[in-house]
Amino acid sequence: MMENIQATLNRGPAVQAAKPIKMKTKDVTVHYGAKQALNGVTLNIPENQVTALIGPSGCGKSTYLRCLNRMNDTIDIAKVGGEILLDGEDVYDPDIDVVELRARVGMVFQKPNPFPKSIFDNVAYGPKIHGLARSKQELDEIVHTSLRRAGLYKEVHDRLDEPGTGLSGGQQQRLCIARAIAVSPEVILMDEPCSALDPIATATVEELIDELRENYTIVIVTHSMQQAARVSQLTAMFHLGDLAEVGPTEKMFSNPDDKRTQDYITGRFG
Amino acid sequence: MSDATANGIAATAAERKPRRDIGIGRRYAAERRFKAYGIIAIAIGLAFLVMLLTSIISKGYTAFWQTEIKVPITFTEKVLGTPEQAVKSQTKLLMANYPQLARDGLVQLLGISADDKKAVSAANGLISSGTRVTLRDMVMNDLSIIGTTEDVWLYASSELDSAMKGQYDLSVPENRRPISDLQLEYIDKLKSQGAIEERFNWGLFTFGASSRAETAGLGVAIIGSFYMMLIVLALALPIGVAASIYLEEFAPKNKFTDLIEVNINNLAAVPSIVFGLLGLAVFINWFGLPRSAPLVGGLVLTLMTLPTIIIATRAALRAVPPSIRWAALGLGASRTQTIFHHVLPLAAPGILTGTIIGLAQALGETAPLLLIGMVAFVADYPATPMEPATALPVQIYMWANEAERAFVERTSGAIIILLAFLAIMNLTAIFLRRRFERRW
Amino acid sequence: MSTFTIILVVLAIGLAGAFLGYRHSRALQAPAGVKPHSRPVYHASYVASWAIIPSLLLLAVWLIASPIVIESQVRGSFPEGVLAESQLTEDLAYGIVESLGNGLSVLPDDERATVTDEMPVKDLAALLRNRGLPVASASADWMVPLALDIDTMQFWSRLAMTVVVIALALAGAYWGYRQIAPRLRARNKVEGVVKGALIAASSIAIMTTIGIVFSMLFETIDFFSRISPAEFFFGTVWEPRFSAAGSTGNAGSFGFIPLLAGTLYISAVAMLIAVPIGLFAAIYMAEYADNRTRSVVKPLLEVLAGIPTIVYGFFALVTVGPFLRDLSAQISGIVTGDYASFIQAQSVLTAGLVMAIMLIPFVSSLSDDIITSVPQSLRDGSLGLGATRSETVKRVILPAALPGIVSALLLTASRAIGETMIVVLAAGVAANLTINPFDAMTTITVKIVAQLTGDLEFNSPQTLVAFALGMTLFVITLCLNVYALYIVRKYKEQYE
């Protein structure tokens, strides 16, 4: 197990010089009704890097992710506390508009969820509602570019008007990524984007994530430590609602400080 | 891949600092409008409900009271004959002029001269002609009453009743209203003597059909509806449960099962009047069952209720987790045993709830009953489900067609009673669901 | 013996057989070595099944067949003169003979003995009238012997039935009892019977549909043999005249178009009001309302669905209709100075408006179901891109739910078209052909009720037309329902 991860790391991207901080979170807590799901998480997310959130299931990593663009608002009983700053602005500030926030912080979900519309309309949906394109040509341009950036264009360019639900699982997930990119967000949140995909589709999506890093800040929740090692520069380890440890990915997998992290990456629990 | 083509949509955060305009103000206005439409829609729906109930209740609550007049009745032999004659032949007693007794009593009470024809007829207009039956029953039950004088509470006529309840506009000229100035004078006189009172209207629940509003009641209709509900319960519940068990637990996936399913779903949506035609053609014309009988009504309503019960029962059976079935089968129980010993008891609350809701639907159903002749003038209680009767909703329909003012009140009163029955049934169903609902 | 008594006797035999079978089976358990296949209770049920099922089946067949056999026998001996007459007269004559025959069995024995083949019919009629049985005036002397025949045949048929059915029950019980043995697979056989009963119960749904179709089909065919289908389906005048029985005079016009127009017009008005209200209410409930609001508002709206339609009809008749009429009088008074109402108390608008109230909960609860079955992931996907709630609803959820909503609307339309009590009281009976929603129009269902209530005379176009109307109504709603169910099935499959 360990050797495996080491091997992956050696092939993985080199740790880069310190980047400016895109999102700062301080003492973030989440309650679902009476149950506390997050007990004060403080974490800085660097710009134009991939930050991986790992940990055993039920540890609160997805809950934390959903706080970053306030998707928890859709759950009636969820209560969020603490401070989450995007470029220095508190996203839970009443003056911050949730629609605007989500246009800046996009999200890709665990299970591919294309709308039951054509491929084109799926990608064009965001730009349309936000009024990002002034003309049909501009919209075409955005859709094509987004599909290209999501690495899907070649596969679907001749059938853009077919339903998005007809694609394979991996293609659907890349369509969802293209859909998120089309809004030109600053941050993309990915909630176990590969968990429903086969290994080949996973590899394609991982490659895509690595490329997207150049232009977007990415936060990815993943179950797979290999995946975290392959795509991320910074890794945060969650355990039972706490942030156990955070550090450069390479260090986390070679020389973790925290006992729980050691146990987890060596497969003692998970 | 395509990094080289990076353009506007892939700008870095730094360049984007002046925030994009994504039309927030306009979009939120649309959001508020949309939400408002929803609230308005719900408000309209609830307003309709309130209007409907207010209209019915305000028109109908007075039906539960009936004006009665306390009249000293002299059971004179002149009218009734002697008790000895009565023992020999009842004909005279049956045919006697009871209204005359009532009129004489009232005339005496009001202190008007018996020769004043106009005054006497005005006074007579205050009493219901239904007094004939009341007085006759009194005498027939107890012959010794003949020759005595007794205070009897008599039903007031529907005109007097309506006047007492303030349903007439008394400011219009005398000839434009059903009650005259003289009669109003008498009413005041009776009031001052304490001889007029509004009492609880038991007759509304017990009387049969009558052309006079004050003696028309729901007795026959309630019994008819009761018989029909019994028949529906006795037939639809076992058949519905049996059909559901077959479809849910045994039926193979094939064309025949599909056909049954489509059939059941379609029957649930077939207009109720079509079932009336079926009842008329099959049960009455073909099987030769009697018209107007609760038996036929019950059979028709059974067929109508079956889909409801089947759909509810199947949902209840489906809610029992398969692990229960596996557990029983694993112990060597046969499928039939598994179903009857384990699955069915667990699904019982759901089945019961569905059945009650189906019964409530059947209780309010009118159209098919019209066609099988339950629109009948039935004055006597039916002893068996084979005898003519009416049903609650049909009685409401018949009264709704009566022009008289007092019938509007009666109709609304009958609707309140019907709605009360339905409310009780539905609340029972809700209670059962809350009490026994099991979450797996 | 009455049928009811026979059934009781058969059940008693079954019960006794079950009891004996139980004892016999218990006794079988004793010999060691062989373990019986089934428990005693199954043996008991096995015996009871043999006793009851075949005999009751025979009873049912006998009850159906006997009158048919008797009727054909009696009709065969009708005088030639009667046979030469029309089918209608012959049916009428048989009806009288049958009621005479049935009357005979009511007479006490001493009076019954006086009735002979030679007795004039008026004497027999007098006897029967004393017993409270009216006799039709068209009776004739030749009917008396036939009535006696019927009475005799009925007597023997019933006697034979009683004997044979009870004998079969006993034989069945004996046969079942003899079969009891340790290795008898009684449980499987009893379960087979149970399963048969279950299948029979579920086929009642099919039987009902068949019953509906055939009961209306025959009468409809009869109707079309008198009035041509073209006249019915394309006629624009509805004016059936009630004519005396047997007279061949003009039966009036049976134009279906005004009824269809009224039905569709009123349904359309109702849908126009109910659909937006119901749909918006459903959307609010599914997408905006919190749990508390939903738990209060939803049941309240469903109360509207639970109110019987006769109540809506009455509401329309005494409240809404007069209100609209007075309102229109006020309006025209203000506009023209002449207080003449332009909305009639019974009008398309009144009926449509009140029907809409009834349909609101129907639309809203069907649509609510459909909208909430759209997967949450689609909502998340849209909200995650920064769409507002209403944008999500309009651009993602409604398009995704469209087929389901269309089917909900079709079911609603079917309901509106088949609605009876509201239109009977609110729409009026005049078969107008108009486009003015303030005028009265009538519907298919109103006319079915009108033609079939009151004194019925079967076999006249006036009553038969009700079945033709019913058949048309059934076919229209059947198409709507089946298509709607088909769509919703496809739709549900998509998200399962």
Automatic annotation (TrEMBL), chain B:
Residues 222-428 form the ABC transmembrane type-1 domain. InterPro entries: DUF3333, MetI-like, MetI-like_sf, Phosphate_PstA. It is a multi-pass membrane protein. GO terms for molecular function: phosphate transmembrane transporter activity. GO terms for biological process: phosphate ion transmembrane transport. The keyword Membrane applies. SUPFAM superfamilies: MetI-like (SSF161098). GO terms for cellular component: plasma membrane. The chain crosses the membrane at residues 36-57, 226-247, 267-289, 295-317, 338-360, 413-432. Pfam families: BPD_transp_1, DUF3333. It is found in: Cell inner membrane; Cell membrane. The keyword Transmembrane helix applies. Keywords: Cell membrane, Membrane, Transmembrane, Transmembrane helix, Transport. Belongs to the binding-protein-dependent transport system permease family. CysTW subfamily. NCBIfam families: 3a0107s02c. This is Phosphate transport system permease protein PstA. The gene is pstA.
Automatic annotation (TrEMBL), chain C:
Keywords: Cell inner membrane, Cell membrane, Membrane, Phosphate transport, Transmembrane, Transmembrane helix, Transport. It comes from Jiella endophytica. Residues 260-484 form the ABC transmembrane type-1 domain. One of its GO terms (biological process) is phosphate ion transport. Belongs to the binding-protein-dependent transport system permease family. CysTW subfamily. It holds the Pfam family BPD_transp_1. Part of the binding-protein-dependent transport system for phosphate; probably responsible for the translocation of the substrate across the membrane. GO terms for cellular component: plasma membrane. The chain crosses the membrane at residues 6-23, 44-65, 155-177, 197-218, 264-288, 300-323, 343-363, 396-417, 464-488. It is a multi-pass membrane protein. One of its GO terms (molecular function) is phosphate transmembrane transporter activity. This is Phosphate transport system permease protein. SUPFAM superfamilies: MetI-like. It comes from the Bacteria. It is found in: Cell inner membrane; Cell membrane.
